[in-house]
Amino acid sequence: MKRSLQVISIVLLLGTVFTWLFTGANRGWTKTSVAVKTLDDVTGIEGISYENKFLPGLDFLGGGSLAALALGGTSLFFRKPKHSTKLN
Fold first, then answer.
1. Which of 6, 11, 13, 39 fits as disulfide partner to 68, beta carbons 3.0 to 4.6 Å?
2. In the Cβ-directed half-sphere of 74, how many Cα atoms lie within 13 Å?
């Protein structure tokens, strides 16, 4: 049980860091939409439209890291089973 919690903790931490890095490493809050400048073909006026896009921020990174730390800390409460040798 102890080893499995530690492995899950490491996988969660690495998954959180890699997700944050490879989706843009946003150093602000998590965003679910991004402003994109568009140019109207007819009038030539520049406008702003919003695209749905998930950009995890530092709150995502911190939350995932805290969850991994909690799982790793929980694993410290489990002891190794003692092996007893019983002779008959």
1. 13
2. 13
